[in-house]
Specification:
There is one protein chain. By secondary structure, the chain is of the alpha+beta class. It has a single domain, classed as Peroxisomal Thiolase, Chain A, domain 1 (3-Layer(aba) Sandwich). 36% of the residues lie in helices and 25% in strands. It is built from 7 helices and 8 strands. Strands 1, 2, 3, 4, 5, 6, 7 and 8 form an 8-stranded mixed β-sheet that branches. A hairpin with a 2-residue loop joins strand 2 and strand 3. Helix 1 runs parallel beside helix 2, helix 2 runs parallel beside helix 5 and helix 6 crosses helix 7. The longest helix has 14 residues. The two termini are 32 Å apart.
Length: 204
Amino acid sequence: METKQYINGYCVIENNSVTVNGQQVLNTPGLAFPEFAKQAYQLADAGYPKFFKMDNLSKLAFLAAGLLLKDEVEDGKDNNIALLFANSSSSLDTDTKFQEQINDRDNYYPSPAVFVYTLPNICMGEISIRYKLYTENTFFIFAHFNAEFFAGYAAVLLAANKAEKVLCGWVEFYKDSYKAFIYIVSHEGSTEHTADNITKLYHT
């Protein structure tokens, strides 16, 4: 018998604005992303100093995830939450910065601190470390946001008892354009986890 899954909460970050479960909690027009991220970090109350060394994609994912997970997890305990993320540009924003360092023959020293973020799934590693998530985690690349994929893959993880909850996310950062849409899905709740409902929240 097929078991339904439900969306328990969601967070959207774009255009210097943070929305959690449909309520805007931060809006700072005109700020560059690094300054905006510092303010959002205070909201997340993550207590993770390494945040300030992350690349922009990881900061974006970490912030959106943290704003949801701070009420979902218990510090000091392992949490049975899988991660399922995707975007369209992979880690291209950081890849470009690293390539620029390689190309600069007059000041040649490619930074290991930049190189470590030249994979998109590193953002999930940072989230997993902070919130002690030791379950499934996978990062996919699609041309566009794919609600059907999230609905189907998360359903499989929960049906197979791979996790009690799944943190799903579209996290896109390239140059000055960014968007994070992250939500939690489980066996209980009121908003059914369907492609239509995911799409509606994504465009909220």
